[in-house]
Structures are given as structure tokens and as C-alpha cells.
Amino acid sequence: MAANFDQLSAREIAAGVANGDFTAVEVARAALDAVEARDGEVKAFLQVSADLALAAAEATDRARAAGERLGPLAGVPVAFKDNMHLVGTRTTCASRMLENYESTFTATCVQRLLDAGATPVGKTNMDEFAFGSSTESSAFHPTANPWDVARVPGGSSGGSAAAVAAGEVTVSLGSDTGGSIRQPASLCGVVGLKPTYGAVSRYGVVAFGSSLDQVGPFGRRVEDVALAMNALTAGGRDPWDSTSQPVACDFAAHLDDPIEGRRVGVVPALMEAAGLTDEVRDAVSAAARALADQGAELVEVDLPNIASAIAAYYVIAPCEAFSNLARFDGVRYGYQEPGQATLAEQTSLSRAHGFGEEAKRRQMLGAYLLSSGVYDTYYYPAQQVRTLITADYARAYEKCDVILMPAAPRTAFKFGELSDPTQMYASDMFTISNNIAGNGGVSVPLGLGAATGLPVSAQLQGPAFADARLLTFARAIERSFSPDGGAPVAPAFAGKGGELA
Amino acid sequence: MPLTREDVAGIADYARIALTPEELDEMTAYMNDAVALLDPIRQYDLEGVEPTFHPIGDLSNVMTDDVPDDEVRHLPVDVALENAGASRDRSFRVPSILGDQGGDR
Fold first, then answer.
1. What interface predicted TM-score (ipTM) does this complex get?
2. Where are the domains of chain B?
3. Could you tell me the domains of chain A?
4. pLDDT at residue B104, as a whole number
5. What are the pLDDT digits (tens) for A340-387?
């Protein structure tokens, strides 16, 4: 059969490999060919792991030939954010600090996709150490939004979102500390799930904010994201991550459950938020109507303290980042400034020259906020405000099953357009409160905005460990807005390379 | 009261990030902008509100017997050293810690 792999879902690829319609190696070659043809412009990848991809695909084909049962992601091309360790690749966090760092072990999230039969195509670009919302702070190169290459893909998991939007891979993984999966998914027009904190192991993922970070998948279809979640969680809790929780559930089993009679919360204050553009507001309102048309009941809920979520986040996250990034001292790994007489000078200059501007800013802010006296003014009160935000959500979920809101206030912006760092922080105004509370959230494409013609999205948020429910509602939106069963590959890249032999 | 250039230089020293004079000016402006963004935190009456340091409330340390277990994965010394900027034999190599042994690195 002659087809482009970028038109196939993860389930179709795995079934095609299992049935012998095509081999995993043919799919791997198609994905590598698509990367070759498309990534010169998109620049989603920092490394393409062709050898690993072909070796994994050959192993999948051998397993089939031996009559073994194949995994649910057999032959599915996947990509990993470059803060995830995979032996045989460097893990750079898009930083000069780790430019030459060879992975010494493989992250649990990566291993579980490989165990499910996936083919590792490469490591994707990101904001340096995940500090950012545009992927512009990568030390190596920017990544283009496949829907308009003059614009950013969002961030910090911008490479993972762009690789899926351009059809270079079927599924990718990102990490989300304040919106770093959901915001780039929105800007690139793909599905992006931040699961509940603890649902996916963080072992082998370079830490940013340890009480906030969570790994999750991108895909063009809700079902692809559900299958990736099954692979990420099927192994049970990970003994190597003390915060890992058991999530026994089939994420794909309830996608088409009816939503009739179930309640969708809408927060009126968020729909009037300053900075929210008309086209995004209108699209999210249309999503609410679509859910109501399928029988859901819309209820108004209030989250009175989430207006303070950005402030609480920019206390908690920089403090945790400063603590986590203290390990980069130029001794055990990372950039080491040559020719220094003392350890203190070597450390200060290694950090000065290894880290980029935003990584230095965040650590400086964290160092200040954790200093004596200042701690009581900001850090401790921010953790008290976190209690209030968490309680707001708990009250809201007494009245509704999920909450519907925008994922990002606007569509993709141009390179350099948000040059003021504190202005960039507002990009996460709709996503950040969910990380503070630890709950799950998902971005779902709503087609193209009426004003800009660029992807717009809705976000669904849910209570802790209700991520399968989020995907049921996400699928309901997908039924209304994506009649072809999923979001399209960005038209400028669809079908360029990637033909299945 | 805004942070001064001297305040920020002290923080940079504590954070072990060497800043040039120009970077120190930019960082001072940024730090004051960022701290202003945090102001909503100070507007609350938080009397009696418990802090939430972690989204999972009942975490506790994982304790095991203090005996070597070869079943448990560990990083072999040669692998642990392969990303180091400088090493000697089975050790990471660093310059003088006190600054008085400049010749012997």
C-alpha cells in the first residue's frame, strides 16, 4: 500500500506492523525520511537517533517474525524532549551546560514507550532547562511553528509539539511545569496532556521544579495520547521515583463514552481575562456549546484565588529550580571552565558560561527568594496560597466533572515578539494554576482562529487522577471539531517525505 | 524597597554565577520587575492557612536496610566519570578548594 505514515494513527501503525501490511523498519525509514524533508525548516530536533530507531524497528520486526506478541505502540515513531535520558543519545536540556552530556541511563518514561514497541526517532528542542514559553531560549537554535514558520511553537516543549504538528513523528513526550506541554500543544494545533502529578515517573528527566514537573504525551489524536498514557503507566508505580503513583486504568477504553448528563465547569472570570484574544474566547465558547450539544450540562464555577497563581508559581518554581540546578557545578558533568585556580572560581565561571540568560535569571530569583528574611515574605506565603488554590479546585469539582477554559491566551507569536521576560510569563496564565494544585489538564485543538488563521485550543482540567476522564471529554471535543478523527498535519509539511514503501 | 546592584551582586555570589558589570545591571532590573510580579502573594491575610509544599500530601522517606544489594542498579565508576570535565583514576578532579594550593590541581 502506498501511504504517508503522517496520515496514520498510532493504533493504525501498530496494527499495520502486527498484520504485516508494512514493517516497523519501513515505518522508521518513512519517519526518518520525513524528518530529513521537513526538519530543515521546522528544526524541531536537536538530535536524530537514526541508528537507535532502525535497531528498535528491526527488533520489533524480528519479534513479529518469531511469533511474539507485539506491544501496543509497535513501530510507532516517537520523539523525546531533550531533558529525558536515553542511552545512546546526549541529553542537553538545550543548554551549553550539557552540550556534550551523554545519557548514562534511560528515563523510565522513555523506556516504557520503548517497551511498548515504539521507535525512537530523536530528541527534541526546548527552552533551556524548560525555562520559557517559546523555545527561543534554546542555546542551539529556535524551532519554527509548522503552521507559520515565522512564529514560535510555544514552549518549553516546543520541539516535541512541532515534531508532531509537522508529522515528523506520531507521538512525542514533553514535560510540563507551568504549561510546557499544554501551551505549545495549543500553539501548534495538537493534543497535549499534562497528567496528574505523580501519574508518570519523572525518573531520568532532568528536574526543574520538583513539586510541579510532570511528563506527558503529544499526539494529533486523543486516541494516540491515550495509547501513550497506557504505555507510560502500564508498568505500575516506578520504584525509582518516590512520587510515582499507581494509575491502574485503560486510558483508551472510555474515549467514546457518552458525556450526556455530565457537568462541564466554566469560569466566567477566566473567559473575560485581560490578554485573552477574541478568537480564542470565541473558539472556547464554541467548544462549550459543542459539549452541551452532546448532552453535557454547563455549570458556572469560581476559582477566586487563581489570579494569584502566576505570582505563587514565580516564587515556588524559581526556588525549586535554584535548588535543582545547584548540581551543575562543572565537576561531575556539564561545562567546566578551564584554567581556574580555585573551585569557587571554576564553579562561578562554569555556571556563568554554561547557562543562558533565562536560566541565570530564574536561579538568581530563586536564590534571592530562599535567602534569610525573604523566605518568610514570599516563599512560605506562596505555599499557603497554594493551599487556597488547591481548595478552590476541590470546591469547583464538587459541582462539575471537568473545567473548560482556554489553553493559551492567544495564537502563536512571532520570534522576538515577547522580548520582556516577565511579559512572557503571562503565556501560562491559564495553565499554571493546575501545576500548583497538581491536577491534570489537556489541550485540545479547535481548528484555526478566525482572526489569525493559526491553531486555537481549549483546555480541559480535572481533579487529581481523573486523567482518563479528561481524555473522554477531549475526545468529545475532537468529535465536533476534527471530523477526520484528529488534528491535521500542518499543510506546509503534510506529505513531504514520509511515504511508506 | 528595590534591590540594589550591590544586593544583586551578593545574590550572584551566593548562587555561584559570575556576572559581568553589564549583566549585573540587566539582572538588577529583571530582579526588581520579577519581584514586583510576586506582589499578590503579599496582599493575603494568611493567618491560620496551612502551607502545601507538595501536591502529594502523605509522602515519607523510603528507608531500606543499609546493606549492598547487587540487584539494585547503580552507576559503575567508569560511567559516572565519563561526563566529568576532569578526572584522575577513580575520582573527579577539582582545583584547590581553599585557593592556596594553586600549583597542584
1. 0.92
2. 5-42
3. 5-302+394-481 (3.90.1300.10)
4. 45
5. 999 999 999 999 999 999 999 999 999 999 999 899 999 999 999 999
- In A245-363 the beta strands, taken as DSSP E runs, fall at 263-266, 297-300
Count of A-B CB contacts under 8 Å = 169
Disruptive mutation site among B4, B35, B49, B52 for chain A (greatest number of A CBs within 10 Å): B52
Q: Is A446 in contact with A283 (CB distance < 8 Å)?
A: yes
CB contact (8 A) between residue B51 and residue A384: yes
Residues of B in contact with A242 (CB under 8 A): 59, 62
Report how far residue A227's alpha carbon sits from residue A73's, in angstroms, rounded to the nearest whole number. 8
The whole-angstrom separation of Cα B95 and Cα A340 is 7
String of DSSP letters for A163-209: HHHTTS-SEEEEEESSSTTHHHHHHHTSEEEEPPTTSS--TTB--S-
Please indicate whether, in this complex, the C-beta atoms of B31 and A368 are within 8 angstroms of each other: yes
Find cell 479546585 and name the residue: A393
> 3-state class of A323 per DSSP?
helix
Residues of A annotated as catalytic are 81, 156, 180
Q: Please name which of A75, A76, A48, A78 lies closest in space to residue A62, comparing C-alpha atoms.
A: A75
Q: What angle do CA A33, A37, A41 make, to 5 degrees?
A: 140
Q: Which chain A positions have a beta carbon within 8 Å of B95's beta carbon?
A: 340-343, 345-346
A371–B56 CB contact, under 8 Å:
no
C-alpha cell at position A447: 481548528
| Residues A100, B83: C-beta atoms closer than 8 Å | yes
Report the CATH fold assignment for B5-42: Histone, subunit A (1.10.20)
Cα distances (Å, whole numbers) of residue A356 to A131, A351, A353, A398, B82: 10, 9, 8, 44, 24
- Cβ distance B99 to A245 less than 8 Å, yes or no, reads no
Question: For the CA atoms of chain A, what is the radius of gyration?
Answer: 21
Per-residue pLDDT of chain B (105 residues; tens, 9 = 90+): 799 999 999 999 999 999 999 999 999 999 999 999 999 999 999 999 999 998 887 777 777 778 877 766 678 899 999 999 999 999 999 999 887 654 444
Partners of residue A123 on adjacent β-strands: A47, A80
B54 contacts on A by Cβ (under 8 Å)? 211, 243
| Cα A51 from chain centroid (whole Å) | 25
Q: Are β-strands A191-194 and A77-81 bridged in parallel, bridged antiparallel, or unpaired?
A: unpaired
C-alpha cell at A440: 491534570
CB A223 within 8 A of CB A11: yes
Q: A344-368: buried (b, 16+ CB within 10 Å) or exposed (e) per residue?
A: bbbbbbbbbebbbebbbbbbbbbbb
Which DSSP category does A412 fall into? Answer: P
Q: How far is B100 from chain A (nearest CA, A)?
A: 8
